[in-house]
Amino acid sequence: MLTAHGFDVVEAVGTGPELERALRTHRPDVSVVDVRMPPTLTDEGLQVSLAVRRDIPGLPILVLSQHVEQLYARELLADGAGAIGYLLKDRVFNADQFIDAVRRVAGGGTAMDPEVIAKLVAGNASDPLSALTPREREVLGLMAEGCSNAAIASRLHFSEGAVGKHTANIFAKLGIVASDDTNRRVLAVLAYLGTP
After folding, report:
1. How far apart are CA 147 and CA 143, in angstroms?
2. CA-to-CA distance for 33 and 91, rounded, in angstroms?
3. Comparing C-alpha atoms, which of 167, 112, 121, 115 is closest to residue 144?
4. How far apart are CA 188 and CA 4, in angstroms?
5. How many Cβ atoms from other residues are within 10 Å of residue 38's Cβ?
6. What domains are defined for the chain?
7. What is the pTM of this model?
8. Where are the alpha helices (DSSP H) in 78-183?
């Protein structure tokens, strides 16, 4: 499917150790990784991805999982660097949705499965976002899915300028200031998902 949509596949691997070698050797524009890989068939793909991203911050990785695992999603988002995604494997069957997620992650954005986001938000005991209006929460929810301002505007049927104003309000209300060291959208999404 990836090659059919114009991607060059530099390597396909079957085990965690092979994945680690491939990620470190190729430093690909984006990697699609299964959470469960041999030899352990537990969370080897995720653990290798996290370890390599600690050494190569921002290395774009899209993780696929059979089920929503809140801990996995939180771990992936914890570094705040972006270029990360977490999709349920069912999403791969929708080629447009899957390829869009791959492109977003490759471009430095996030691609979070809506089901993952729903579980993360439902799991939050407190609401650090109480200052946000319902519309700002809606915009932030779409940001958490990895949508661009143009995509948010299209889905909510208003202008990109309006999305920009809502986004600026979200940053201000969450106390997120512009910095060369952080991505404000990723920090806002982390606040939305309740990740410390």
Report:
1. 5
2. 14
3. 112
4. 34
5. 12
6. 2-124 (3.40.50.2300), 134-193 (1.10.10.10)
7. 0.65
8. 95-106, 114-122, 134-144, 149-156, 160-174
| Other residues' Cβ atoms within 10 Å of the Cβ of residue 106 | 18
Confidence of residue 125 (pLDDT cuts 50, 70, 90): very low
Write down the mean pLDDT value for the chain.
86
State how far the Cα of 136 lies from the Cα of 183, in Å rounded to an integer: 18
List Cβ<8 Å contacts ≥24 apart for 168-173: 169/132, 169/133, 169/136, 170/132, 170/136, 170/139, 170/140, 173/131, 173/132, 173/136
Residue 84 scores a pLDDT above 80: yes
Residue pLDDT, tens place only, 61-71 = 999 988 777 66
Mean per-residue pLDDT, 162-183: 86
What is the separation, in whole angstroms, between the first and last Cα of the chain?
Answer: 36
